Structure formats: C-alpha cells, structure tokens
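In the previous chapter we treated chains in isolation. Here, by contrast, the input contains three separate entities that must be folded as one system, with a combined length of 283 residues.
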Amino acid sequence: MPELPEVETIVQGLRTTIMGQTILKVEVVREDLLATPRGAFVRSLTGGSVLDIARRGKNIVFSIGANGDASAIFVVNLGMSGRLLRTESGRTSALVTHPGARFRLGDGSTLVYHDIRRFGRLTATTPEEHESWSASLGPEPLSSHFTRGVLAEALRRSASKVHPWLLHQGNVAGVGNIYASEALFRAGVHPQKRARDLEAAETRRLHRGIRAVLTEAVERGGTTLRDYRTFEGEEGSYAHELRVYARAGQPCTRCAGQVERVVLGGRSAFFCPECQPPPDEAS
DNA sequence: AGTGTATCCTGCAGGC
DNA sequence: TGCCTGCAGGATACAC
C-alpha cells in the first residue's frame, strides 16, 4: 500500500518528533513480522538512540546507536497495511487494533508498529549489511542520480512489460502499483509495452512522468485509499488527483476514451487505450 | 530471463 | 442476516 510518497510523508513526520529519542524497551507482539531473529532484533535496538531517520525506496530506515555512531540499522517495510503510530505516555490509542511491535521511547511515548495484514517486515541489521542491501535496490527516482539516461539504459536491458518492470524495486526504488499506472498514463505509454521497446521520446516522458507524479504526491502527503495514514494519523489527499488508478470504466480525463484495467503479474494496471496506444504484438 | 501462479494475511464491498 | 467471491499502495518463491 504505501509507495514512495506515502513513506516519504511518514519519514518527514517521524523526523520532527522522534529524532534523538532513546529506545528504552522493545516489545514484539507478532514475531512473524520480524525478518531478524527476535533475540538479535531486541538486543540490537534496545538502549540505542535514534540518530537518523531516512527513506530508501519504500522502506523507513532508522540509524540506531550512541554518540553519533550507528551500531544498528532498523528498517521498516510497511507491506500493504503497515502503519507507524505514536501514543503518548500512559495512553492507549483506539487506532491500535493490530499491534505488531512497540518501542517505548525516552520521553515516555511509544512508537507502535501496526499492521492488519502483516505483510510488513521489520529488520535490524549492521550498517555493513544495510549498505549491501541498499545497493541491491534501484536508484531513487527523485534523486539527481536518476537521469533520463540511467532510466533509458535500464529499460534497454529488459524484455519485460513496462508496468511490472516499474514495480521491481531493483529497477527503480519506491514506485508501486498506483504511481506506475499514473506515470505511464502521463507518459502516454501502454503498460504492456516491453521495456526495451520504449522509444526515446517515450523514455523521456516516462522519466518526467515518474518524477512529476511522485513529487506531486509527496506534496499532497500521499494517497489514502484505505489503510494509509501519515505518522500523525492523517489521510493523504493525492487520491483526488489520480487520473487512471482504480478508475476502470470511467472517462479518461484527457480524451473521450474510457479507462481500462488489465492484470499484469497479478497486479491491476490501469490505462487509457486512446492516450496509451497498445503495442503491436498480440497478447 | 521472463512470466504466470501461489503464498503470506485480514477486511471490506458487492451479489445472491 | 449470512455466505460467497473478488479485491486491496508489497514482496517472494516456485514451476515452466
């Protein structure tokens, strides 16, 4: 559920509130959420301070340590329905119906990881392990490293259809199902077109489309359709700006056509058949 | 290498 | 009201 804009919004909220806090106690409610053995997970985080909070793709990355020296990296992947919430000292929040883990902080508040479907994953690693994991992901689409040339080169190496290609985190980090459809619509590229078959003009438009859609969604605090909430518990407002996602059967915002839905790799892709001409190949 | 399918899980909407 | 099916912002593991 949360893609780059949603995770970025959550990270911004976390940074204003829990930077520098010490983790006094770690309580694991649902062990199946851990990608790290429970003992090592609890041990490596307990007693440390939050030195930094950042985002890598769709992951929230906490640097944990002391005296400015990170001894552990705590990574939260929210999966489809994960949330990070804060509860004030001594208070229980009615929002917390499916707690997965609790982190009691030095100021008396508690950071709660909440996840209904439990597709999320909590990982504690060393800084070295974290670096090699991060290197396995594709470029950050809003960074200066993500140039038109980088995108073109990566697309050229793949015969897969461009919508599933965009969802693969090793290609571009942070794009998910909503923004893949939205970026392709803006670029006028059909979701079933092969990555390597994109023409130069299409690649240029896709590059701009990805960056524009993600930037605008960050400005709106992300897209809330169901579960997603900011760290403050608010909804993101980008759902109003969606042009094709979840709009099958409705009129295209740009032409007289009608938005269609197709399943690719088990995920729904939405597109306008007029604005995004189908590739020649039958299928 | 790429694709299709299944899996992990819960909740909700819609049809009957 | 209940039961059933299908669907959901993700990621992985497997067989072809």
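Helices of chain A lie at 4-18, 38-45, 127-135, 148-156, 162-167, 177-187, 200-219. Chain A has seven helices and ten strands. Compare these points with the single-chain example from earlier in the chapter.
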